[in-house]
Structures are given as structure tokens and as C-alpha cells.
Amino acid sequence: MLHLRIIVPTDRSAAVQEMLSADPAVAHLIVLPGAARTPPGDVLLCDVVREGADEVLAALRMLGVDRAGGVVGDGVDVTLSAAADRAARAAPGLGADAVVWDEIAQKTGEETRLSVTYLLLITLATVIAGIGVLLDQPILIVGAMVVGPEFGPLAALSVALLRWRGSIVRRSLLALGIGFLAAMAVTVLSTWALTAAGLVDRSMLLADRPMTDFIWRPDALSWVVGFLAGVAGMLSVTSNRAGSLVGVLISVTTVPAAANVAVALGYGVFDEALGSLVQLLINLCAIVVAGVLTLLVQRLWWERVAAARPAWIRRRRPAPAPRGGPDVPGPPRSVPDRTGGG
Question: What is the largest CA-CA distance in the chain?
Fold first, then answer.
């Protein structure tokens, strides 16, 4: 379930309460008149089952709550309530299969910011993978895969491409491009430093590496694995199952390929650098394509499931909020009807 904290202007509070009370996916509605100060208005608290959350959030936007007030959602881990059980039975589908688009957009959009933490994580992961390549140690490669934060921008890019959010597409590509370039540059420098210290040398890269040479030898399976990992990763994001994402990170050769590019460039082994670069591009493209297709299938499937809602619910759409006004800066955004009804 999702717990929603809604701030709504007093003059619209009755309409929002009516909408929430009539939706069978909503439980535990609490009204605190005049409790909000910034922005001023009433505070409404409620719990919504995930399979009905997207419809409720769309209705709140149509009522202008996002512009004149505010909506904050949190996940609910434990619920002991007959009302919540009735809401889960009334809403079509299962919560694990539900796609809450606002939640996904918020979650993945935060991953596109080119923060210092993101740059440090991808750099450290690439340096670790570079050492693992030279030592032919798969345990270091796996560790680097887990540390690498690159799946966040890849997931955001998939969501933005499907919904065509140009600014998010640009931010995602920027985070990926600058992140990998910075990480590879530092890895080249670290390789030179370790070589100068006598800890590694060029012969280690040229030697037989049966455990890690797959990194720079891409083949058809590279695309297959990357595609399957992209599907699994997007499902873990939409279903809010972070545990599954760890396995996805371990299965894709992105950070290790970038590390192999850097190490090979540092030692002037350009054929291996090229092979690693191809491996990196294959995995990145496969993950994004898989992510977009997975989201598209989920959206189409969920539209069919949502069409099974009772007809009186599908007909109940709140009237759009009035345009302009002192508390509504500009026209309301259009909200697509994903219920399948009119």
C-alpha cells in the first residue's frame, strides 16, 4: 500500500474527500480541517492499495491538488486492517504487478542527478573492476558490479523515452556519459600509479585471463544477457523490490567493460580496448531497449486490467480544476485516462 498525505485548499477539500471516499482502492481516510499552514488548507491522510494508486494520483492532479496544495506518498510495510483487505480485493490486479507512474518517475528521476556521490561510486567501482581485470579475479568484478550506480540513469532513461520527457533523457545521458568518462579517466591514472608502484604491469593484461576475458570478447549472448537483465531490473523498479536489483547489477557487464577499456588504453592495448567498448555499448543499449519494452508491456497490460474496474468507478472522473486563479499558476496538465473507460 501507499500512504498519502494530501494538502488541499479548503474550497476543494470536499471534492477531494468525495473522490477518495468513493474509490474502493482507498482506505483509512482521515480529514484534519485547517491543519496545513504552508500551503494553507486541509490535510487528508489515506492509504491506497498499489493497484489503485495510479488512478487516485491522476484524479488528484485533475483536481489541481499538485499545484494548489501537495501530495506526498510513502510505502506501507505492515497493514493490519479489514478495510485495507477489502480495498485490495476491490481493486483489480495485484499490487506486485501494479505500475505507479508517479512513483517510478520520482524514483528514477532522482538517479539522473550528476551528484558527487554518483561520480565517486562509479569511479570507485571502475577502479576496483580495473584491478580485478588485471588480477583475473571475478570476485572483484562482482563487487564492482554491485557498487556501480549506473542502472539508476539507465532506468530513468527508459522511463523518459517511453513517456518522452526530453529533459530527463538529456540528464540521464549526461549522467551516463560524464560518469563513465570520469571513471575511466581515473582508472587510467590509477593503473599508471599502480604500475609505477610495481603492483601491476602490462604483462598481466596480456596474459591468459580465463575468468575475465569475456569482458572484452562480446558476442550475441552479450546482448541476450543485457536484455534479460534490463527486463529484470525494470521489473524490480516497478514492483518496488530492491532485492532483485542486486542480482541484475551482478549480471550486466557495464562497469567491468568500462574498466577494461581504461586499463587497455593505459597500456596501449587498443584491440582489447575496442572490444571492451563494444561490450559496454551492447550492454547499455540492451538494458535501455529492454527497459522501454518492459514498461510498454506493463502499461498496456495494466490498462486492460484497469478496464475491469466497475463501470461506475470508470465513469467517475473529477472535473478539472479551474484555470488560473491566485492559487493555481497556469492551466492544469492533461492526465491520460488509463482506466480504459470514458
Answer: 75
List the domain range (segments joined by +) for residue 200.
105-303
**Same structural domain, 48 and 190:** no
Q: Which amino acid is at 41?
A: G
41: region left, alpha or beta (phi > 0 left; psi from -120 to 50 alpha) = left
% residues pLDDT > 70 (the chain): 83
C-alpha 26/C-alpha 1 separation (Å) is 10
Residues in a beta bridge with 40: 37
User: What is residue 334's DSSP assignment?
Assistant: P
pLDDT per position as a tens digit, 49-101 = 888 888 889 889 888 898 889 999 888 878 888 888 888 887 776 766 677 77
Sheet containing strand 40-48, edge to edge, reads: 26-37, 40-48, 2-8, 70-75
Number of other CB atoms surrounding residue 89 within 10 Å: 9
Burial class (CB in 10 A: 0-12, 13-18, 19+), 13: buried
Query: Is 335 in contact with 62 (CB distance < 8 Å)?
Result: yes
The reported pLDDT for the residue numbered 213 is 84
Residue 73: beta bridge partners?
4
In a domain, 136, yes or no: yes
The candidate with the shortest Cα–Cα distance to 126, out of 303, 331, 276, is 276
* Number of domains observed in the structure of the chain: 2
* CATH number, position 22: 3.30.70
Sequence-distant (6+) residues with CB within 8 A of 142 are: 250
Q: At what angle do helices 116-135 and 255-266 cross, to 10 degrees?
A: 70
Q: The whole model's pTM is what?
A: 0.76
The residue type of 105 is A
* Grid-cell match 532513461, residue found: 157
Q: Does 97 fall in a domain? A: no
Distance CA(126)–CA(308), nearest Å, equals 48
Helices 220-238 and 242-251 sit at what angle, rounded to 10 degrees?
A: 170
